[in-house]
Give the backbone structure.
Amino acid sequence: MNHAPDARVRKGRGATFSPRNRFAPTASERENDGWWQEEVPERLATEVRDERTRSALSWNTSPDLPFDRSINPYRGCEHGCIYCYARPSHAYWDLSPGLDFETKLIARTGLVERLEEALCKPGYVCRPINLSGNTDCYQPLEAERRTTRAVLELLLEYRHPVTLVTKSALVLRDRELLAEMAEHRLVRVLVSLTSLDRHLKRSLEPRTASPRARLRVIRELDAAGVPVGTLVAPVIPGLTDHELEGLLEAAREAGAATAGWMLLRLPREVAPLFEAWLEAHYPERAGKVMSLIRQCRGGADYDSRFGHRMRGEGVFADLLEQRFRQACRRLGFNDPTTSEAMQLDTTAFRPPRVQGDLFE
């Protein structure tokens, strides 16, 4: 399947091409008509632009998610995970969900100030904030911008609980801060694991931390007293599903106390991007992988229904769920006592003082 004339593997990038923005009124295609055309460079540099934040919190009512609010310091993600369900959101900023998603990033400025304003609203009710709900808050750009750290510092100051999911070793930079939050039961960290195969990881998630580094993150956060779990996600039928038990065992040995899993999701442009990646890197498996995915999605590439999008349905999806549950029981994951101990405290929240309040 030829998805684009200039589709090709680029070192350090996940997508092999850039599908058109679905909101664009026109589309253009490269054609070799004999006239000189500027070649697309083999390596694409990362570009960053600033966006002034209007509202810090994103809200959702999804029954599939354990949180109703999240903060996303960055739009797009240089990690370049080919399967990322957030890729389609890049179209809202007139950019492609393909290579643009991982090379043309948007850093949100003024995020901490807008968050403080949200927390001091009279009707605000404290519940855990998820950081991030869309792209990784510890992607490489965070080393320079430090927005995630500033958000965590503010939440600690006001005793507001937060959960975060990452596949980056940069989170260890904030180990002491997270440990202090943990003393007040204000933080829980999930480290995402996809595969222990370094070769697969390099093309599937090109700019993420290595499997060994992620296990080190679990180990060091656990040693620092930070509640840490693992999220085996996504499980890719025919490609990574055979690693499910091994990933859980490695995470448990490293110190993870809880575990979850999610089936591969291929919404909108992610489906053709993922299929093109398969054809480029694993052509001999592409047909089988896509067939198994469709078996879990009622014959389609994706099923967005609540209750189905995270787990899928059918014999193969049910088998994955059974394997996950059996492995968790054997390894002692998600023990009720442990899960209760990892519950976050919302009662200590101290909202920021409203400007002009002179009686406190």
About this structure: The chain has twelve helices and ten strands.
